[in-house]
Amino acid sequence: MFAHGAVPEVIADSWYRCLDLGLDATAKPVDAVLSYTELRLARERDKSLIAVVRPELELLSKQIAGTNFMTAFADCEGVVLDAIVDNEFRASECSRSIRLGSIWREDVRGTNALGLALFSGESSMVTGYEHFFSSQCGVSCISAPIFDSTGQIVGLLDASSEIAARQFHTKALVDLAVINIENRLFVEDHRGDHIIQFHPRQEYLATQSVGMISCTDDGVITGANRRAGDILSGIDLSSPRTFGEVFQGSFGRMLATTDSVRLVDWLNASYFARIRLTRPMRTSRSVAISLAAKPVYSVSASGSAPVFGDEHARSSFRSAERAMKIGLPFRVVGATGTGRTTFLRTVHESVRTDRPLIAVDCRIAGTVDEDGTLTAHTQYDAQVDTIYGEVGGTLVLEHLAAMTPASATSLAHLVAQLLQPAAGTRWCIVATDETDEAQPNDWCDRAWATLSRLTQMTIHLPALSERTDFQQIAKAMMAGISPSHQLGHAALAQLEKLDRPRNLVDLETQLRILAVRCPVGVIRAEQVQRFLGTSGEQPEVCQRCAGHAVREAKCREINRAFRQCGSNVALTARKIGVSRNTVYSHIVKPRGTAL
C-alpha cells in the first residue's frame, strides 16, 4: 500500500499494468533471451540502424565512463542488440541479466526503463525500488525511444548503472544522443529530397536542436523530424501538406539560395532557415577527356602485395629499382626476417618481368661446373640447370658472407663471367646479408676480389620495430592469412608493442595464432594480450586478492588456467573445480585494453 503521490504516476501506472498481467513482484522474473540464431537474424535485420546508433553509443559510453555504467541499444521489440559495458558494471550481478538478446518488455520483465519507454514513447527513468521485481532494485536505468521520420519507434537507447546519483545528468546525455541518431536517420531516409533546417534563432541552425522538414521538387512535404513538430506547435504535420500550406512565401525562392533566409508560418511565427545540401550534385553536361597515361592491366591483391609505406623502406625500394634497371650489382642488408628476398622479388617483378629470378642460399651452395651447371637450392621459378643457357635475369646470392671458401672460389668464377656478359645477355647480381660484414677471413684473395664487387653499393632494410608502416603491414598480412578477420585500432597498437626478434617471420606467426584463436570478426586488444602474452610471465591478481599471499596464489592459479583454456570460463571452472562465478570474479583484464 502506498500513499497517493508516493511514486511517480508513470511508475504507478506501470505497476498496475504488471499486476493486471499477473506478474508477482516477489518472484524471479523470466530470463527471456533470444537464441543465438534469433539474435543474429535480429541484428542482421537492423544492421543499417545499428551502424547509425553505434557511434552515438560509443560516444555516450565515453561521456559517462568510469561510473559503473553500461550503454545499450534495443530494437522496437525491446530486445538488446548492442551494448558497451565498463569493467565495474560487468563484474556486477546486474550485467548477468542485461545482455545481448535479452528481452525487456513490461509483460516479461515488469517495470523497467526500456519497457516503459517502449510503452509510453517518451524518455523514461526507473530508479532502484521503482522496478516492479525486487530482484532488479539494485540498478537504475534511463531509456529513450528512437523515432524514424514517419513517427514510428525503431529502437531504444539505454544507460544503466548501480549508481543513481548522476541519473538526471545522464538522462540529458541519453536524450541528446537520441536526437543525433534521429537526425541522422532523417537525413538518410530523405537524401533524395530537399531538406530544410529551421529554428527561431539563427545561431541554432548549426546545432542538433534544429527542426527539419523534407520536400520534393514540387514542394510536397515528405517528412519532418520530432523537433520540427515542437517548433511548429499548432500546425499539424501528420497529413500530407505542401511547403506553401505551412510557410508563407515561395518554395522556389527557398531553393534559390544556400544562405539562411527568414521564413514565416501561417501563425505568423518567424524562423531562420536554410537548405541542407544532401542531394547528389547534378552535372549539366559530360565531357570526355583523353589522358596521356599508360593503362593499368593488372593490380596485385592488397593482401599479398608488400607494403612500403615507411619512408626508409620506400627509398630503399627506389634505389634497388634504379640499380636493377642498369644492371648494377648491389647488396641488401637487413636483420633476420626483414624480408630481404621478398623485397628483391618485388623489385625484380617491377623491372624484369620477362626474365627469370634465381635465388641461391650460399650457406648450402654447391659448386659451379665448367659448363655452368650450378648445384644449389633455387627458391623461385623452375629448377634452372644451367645459368649460362639463360639470356639474362636476376641472380640473388643469399647470405653471401656465410659461403664456404670452396663455394666462394667456384661461385666467383661464375660471377666474373656474368658481370662480363656475352652479346644479348644481361644479368643483375644481388647479394643479401644480415650485417655489414667485411671480407670473410677464410676466403681467398681472388674470390674476394670478384665477389667484393657485389658489396660496393649497399641498401639497408629497416627492422620491423623501426618502420612507421607497421599497422599497414599487419593489416595486409592478416588479409592474406584470413580475410574474415580484421585488426582493431587498439589491437594494432597492442600488437606493435610485442617483441619480434625475427621481424616479419614472427609477425606472421603471431597473426596466424590470432586467426586460429579468435572468432571471425574484429580482433580486440584484449585478445592480442591474452593469446600472444608471454607464457612464462607471472599472472596478475585481482584487486580483491592483492596483498593476501594465500588469496594471490589461488587467484594466479585461476588466471593461469583461464589463459591455458583459451579464455573459456566454463572449461576453466571444470578444470580447477570451482564455479563459473568464482572464475568471473578473479579474471584480470590486461592493462590498457577496453572491453
Structure description:
The chain is an alpha/beta fold and 595 residues long. It is built from 21 helices and 18 strands. The strands form four sheets. It has a six-stranded antiparallel β-sheet. Strands 2-1-5-4-3 form a five-stranded antiparallel β-sheet, with helices on both faces. Helix 3 (47-63) runs antiparallel to helix 7, helix 11 (311-325) packs across helix 12 (340-351) and helix 20 (569-576) packs across helix 21 (580-586). The model is unreliable at 281-303, 367-386 and 591-595 (pLDDT under 50).
The tally of helices reads 21
Give the overall silhouette.
flat
Strand content: 15-25%
Helix content: 25-40%
Subunit arrangement of the protein: single chain
Structural class: alpha/beta
Short description:
With 595 residues, the chain is an alpha/beta fold. 36% of the residues lie in helices and 16% in strands.
Q: What order do the helices and strands come in, and which of them pair?
A:
Blueprint: H1 9-20, H2 36-45, H3 47-63, E1 69-75, E2 80-85, H4 87-90, H5 106-109, H6 113-120, E3 124-127, E4 140-147, E5 153-161, H7 167-189, E6 194-199, E7 211-215, E8 221-224, H8 226-231, H9 243-246, E9 247-248, H10 251-255, E10 261-265, E11 270-276, H11 311-325, E12 330-333, H12 340-351, E13 357-361, E14 392-398, H13 405-418, E15 426-433, H14 445-451, E16 458-460, H15 470-481, E17 485-487, H16 489-496, H17 504-517, E18 521-523, H18 525-532, H19 549-564, H20 569-576, H21 580-586
Parallel strand pairs: 12-15, 12-16, 13-14, 14-15, 17-18
Antiparallel strand pairs: 1-2, 1-5, 3-4, 4-5, 6-7, 6-11, 7-8, 9-10, 10-11
